[in-house]
Amino acid sequence: MRYDFFHFLGRKISCVTWVHSTHFSEPDSTILACGSWDDPSNKVSIIKLGLGEGDVRCTSLSSAAIDADTTTMQFLDPYLYVGTSEGSLVRYAVGPDGALTQDACTPLARGFLVTDLHPRTHRLLAVGDGQAHILDPNGLESTTSFELCSRAAGPVPAAPSGGLPVHAAHWVTPDVFAVGGDAAAIALYDTRQARTDEASARCFLAPASDLRLPPSPDAPGAARICTALTTHPHQPDLLAAGNTCGQVAVWDLRMPTLPSCCVPAHEGTVTDLAFHPTRPETLLSCGLDGALLAWTFRGPHFQSESAEISDLRRLDLGYNALAMHPTLDLLACGCESDALYFRSLFTAE
Predict the structure, then answer these.
(1) How confident is residue 222, by pLDDT bands cut at 50, 70 and 90?
(2) Category of 38 on φ-ψ map: left (φ > 0), alpha (ψ -120 to 50) or beta
(3) Pick from 112, 215, 208, 216: which is nearest to 169 by CA?
(4) pTM score, two decimals?
(5) I want to staple 31 with a disulfide (CB 3.0 to 4.6 A). Which of 19, 163, 193, 302 is the partner?
């Protein structure tokens, strides 16, 4: 069955993630978590989708109030981890009935915090205020913290607090993560190369390499901030990035001097990127311009001239986040229009 529908929630959705739990085994259904922003009473919610033949049924299983904008979200059974605009990492236990119970809240930064969970090692990464924190998801108090340093000069300046989007962080390998910053710069940090400054007894982490998006021909003087990062599901050497000028680029990290692909994808900020999990030649992007795009690359290399672009759905207001279901042909998007959008990509009518 092919899906193409909205589910209205009455608040702007800033992050989405699929929930894969042994608790939820109902046939023809799947579970999604989402969080809101820019609302006097932001919420984290668990939504069940009934995907049987006929009409789709969306049911809200639970919601929990949160005292900040939600910025990022990951699920590791049975916990949901939520980063916030005030620098806290909040953990919720998700019960068998979908009920949310907050069981931990760890302040890690003074402002905007982004997180990522490595799919195999389950190392939880949180980045904010020029610091990176690597946490044990089962015990958030077990934290290794690094002050991020540039190659040549001291610590990275603190990221501005508040607002969406600001920056991005993503695991590349079990030991290396990427952080997006100002001027479209992307730094790769290797946690095995941490060094300790004896005078201050703090851990510092210097980038193993730096990447930079070329200037946008459409806005050569515009300020550029890297706002989205993701890696290929089977080839972690392929890193995709998006920025506030609407550019989308793909690097082969084995030859990182220039991106193998760099295209003016959106008319404004790129808010999220994801490779399709079962058809990874397709890269999905969304932005504040209200565009949801699928980039299908033909041939063994991700190059601009080999990309075929599909405009999936245009909105008057923007998209903030997207997530592909790992086993179903089902894309979920968080929208500025107070709704979730769901769509099949390859399923025939």
Answers:
(1) low
(2) left
(3) 112
(4) 0.89
(5) 19
